[in-house]
Automatic annotation (TrEMBL):
The chain crosses the membrane at residues 325-345, 365-386, 452-475. This is ABC transporter permease. It holds the Pfam family FtsX. It is a multi-pass membrane protein. It comes from Rossellomorea oryzaecorticis. Keywords: Cell membrane, Membrane, Transmembrane, Transmembrane helix. The keyword Cell membrane applies. Residues 66-289 form the MacB-like periplasmic core domain. Residues 122-131 have a biased composition (Acidic residues). Coiled coil: none annotated. InterPro entries: ABC3_permease_C, MacB_PCD, Macrolide_Exporter_MacB. Its main location: membrane. It is found in: Cell membrane.
Amino acid sequence: MNFIKRAWLSVKARKGKSLLQIFVFSVICVLVLAGLSIQTAAQKSGELARQKLGADVTLQVDMEKLRENMQSQQQSSGERVRFRPEPIPVNSAEELTSYPQIKGYNFYSSTTALAATFEPIESTEDAEETTTESTNEAPGQGRMGGMAQGDLSIQGVTYTDSSTEFMDGTSALVDGEHITEEDTGKNVALIEQTLAEENDLTTGHTITVTSPQDDSITVELEVKGIYSTSSSGSDQGMNSTALIPYNKIYVPYTASAALKGHDFEGTIDSAVYYIEDPSEMESFVNQAQQESSIDFDTFKLDANDQLYQQMVGPIENVASFSNNIVYLVSIAGAIILALMIMMSIRERKYEMGVLLAIGELRYKLVGQFIVEVLLVAVISFGIATASGNAVADQVSDQLLNQEMESAEQMNTPDSFRGGGMAGRGMPGLQAAQSPQVDTIEDLDVSVTGDNLGLLAIIGLIIVITASLLPTFSVIRLQPKTILSRQD
């Protein structure tokens, strides 16, 4: 009789044990398939996190090297060397904006200024001191470290919607438009809502600010937009008028540089480049160091992918957990099935001895047991496939909820939109009334063909392992020995 037919008849004849094997193998297959689907969901969630969060690299002065240079100059000259800020040439910073790894960028240039045609917001303490101030200084003007300080904080940028305060939700545009790259070289400004209300300013009005170091430097700014801030400032900052959050004015970085003086024209303090995929951050830095004209003896590229690492950490933990599930369930399943088959073989020693005695080949006897387990495995595989999508849906829902909770805490600036580069390799230049995040409402994570194929391979390995080990312990004996041991 054909050994495949014998296997089928044996499975039918032992319905109770066959059902038990089907149940055990179904549980194994479902758990293995759940582990594989978790890996698929974790991989897709990781890709989603990279796309949404990205990473950023900051071009700034290398303070450690600057300090070393100052110390060496002081030792060689014997005189104390005063700290001098080292501005970054705009031309050098612009070289990196065309690199394919980035999805956006921002240039920063900060300074202070004096309000000439309007009144800054003052703290109660400042207002009381105003009556006793010396007339030798302009109202709100003071000195820190021998340098004159203004009563306004000027933040020069390329895009306001991708500046730190607007991205983390501390500030939000309430009227007008954001500053974009199109405003570079123009004298426009974003002012805070409280400052605007106290001075009856609206979009389209013009304000004048002057340099605290040189009163001959005057800049007229057209109010392009009004924003609100939820920042309360620091206790120390509230003692300085310029550090009061309401007195912070955003301008194009060119206007900020103009307030600093002629020596700072065409320069910035720092540049931030937003990387599309954190995995490309290293290649971006390497390309900049090899191809750009940036003086890396003075400046450095500081990589930051902290948000991505925080986001992807739990996802990687889930993926690691799923790997453990696959390994543990596969090993435990093979052991359990092997024990069940071994118990079955002990009861079928006489059958095996008779088959061997009448001339049945040993490999066909082994094949019979493998086919018996395979018949059970096929049924269990079908059960696992039918229930696999339900398991995958539960896993994907949990991962998606975790992803959306993190995504809700972020704002995606419009200057990042439009699929990356536009025009001559620069980011999109559209401004927004209120930046919004395109949240993902559905993540299609289900059992894939690759998952089923891998499950079939793992199941086949389990079947062969569980069948061969106990079978070899019996078929290695001679038929006479097997039959003589039969009680």
